[in-house]
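STRUCTURE:
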């Protein structure tokens, strides 16, 4: 089978922007510490084993941010027109990061629904009361900073309200993953009042969109910040490059890669098959 002609590189080979500037993401260490301290042991374990628990498991790995590795992979990008796909040319073969790879790596629900980012939620007295407990205006979504503050005073809350607070911590810190003081989207945060609906919501699709909006088309010649579940992007880089490249970051190791890949729900790298097995649609 003939390999189709590839799109041009965004950066000329050998002239990719060097990784001399800061490439950051919004770390969740303070949030995770506050969450673990506030919850009872059984509540914490229940959260970790929930459908959203993969973010907690990533955090427990002590996962170090290999910014140079991620930066170089972004420097190898091809000029792909699809808004929510990244293709990078590694040697002779391109590798793809799309919703499919994100879903395989995280195990988060990525199903399609209408009005994904504007779900219908009724502002009830219960919701208003809970937002008052959070110390957040009812028309705003909580920031990570406000969630951390709420953890310090949630000891006397009901079990359901503490669970809501924990879910909002995952939402603010990993799904939205923005600056600590930045309010999250209230239309999505309000879903937490219906616990079953919140846990089963396609947060993977929401998180992927946040991540891609901060990566796709980004000028990487200076300092920049990646929003959302940035850890998933780094794991994709590891798996795409293979174990022989895992030592690129001084803080990373093959053992760490093995732990992360074991954690990932797919336990399969079939999404990184040779290029000729794909039907390319650039």
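SEQUENCE:
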């Amino acid at each position: 089978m003939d390999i189709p002609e590839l799109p041009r590189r965004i950066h000329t080979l050998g002239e990719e922007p060097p990784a001399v500037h800061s490439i950051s993401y919004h770390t969740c260490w303070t949030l995770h510490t506050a969450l673990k301290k506030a919850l009872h042991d059984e509540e914490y374990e229940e959260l970790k084993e929930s459908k959203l628990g993969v973010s907690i498991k990533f955090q427990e790995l002590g996962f170090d941010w290999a910014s140079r590795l991620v930066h170089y992979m972004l420097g190898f990008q091809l000029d792909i027109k699809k808004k929510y796909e990244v293709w990078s040319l590694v040697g002779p073969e391109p590798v793809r990061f799309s919703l499919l790879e994100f879903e395989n790596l995280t195990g988060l629900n990525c199903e399609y629904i209408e009005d994904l980012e504007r779900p219908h939620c009724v502002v009830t007295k219960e919701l208003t009361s809970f937002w008052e407990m959070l110390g957040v205006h009812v028309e705003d979504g909580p920031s990570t900073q406000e969630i951390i503050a709420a953890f310090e005073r949630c000891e006397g809350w009901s079990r359901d309200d503490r669970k809501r607070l924990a879910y909002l911590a995952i939402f603010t810190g990993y799904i939205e993953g923005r600056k600590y003081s930045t309010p999250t989207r209230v239309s999505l945060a309000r879903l937490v009042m219906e616990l079953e609906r919140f846990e089963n919501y396609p947060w993977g699709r929401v998180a992927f969109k946040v991540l891609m909006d901060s990566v796709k088309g980004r000028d990487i010649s200076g300092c920049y910040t990646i929003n959302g579940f940035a850890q998933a992007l780094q794991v994709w880089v590891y798996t795409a490059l293979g174990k022989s490249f895992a030592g690129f970051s001084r803080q990373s190791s093959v053992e760490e890669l093995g732990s992360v890949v074991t954690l990932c729900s797919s336990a399969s790298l079939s999404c990184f098959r040779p290029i000729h097995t794909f039907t390319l649609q650039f």
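REMARK: The two ends are 18 Å apart (CA to CA).
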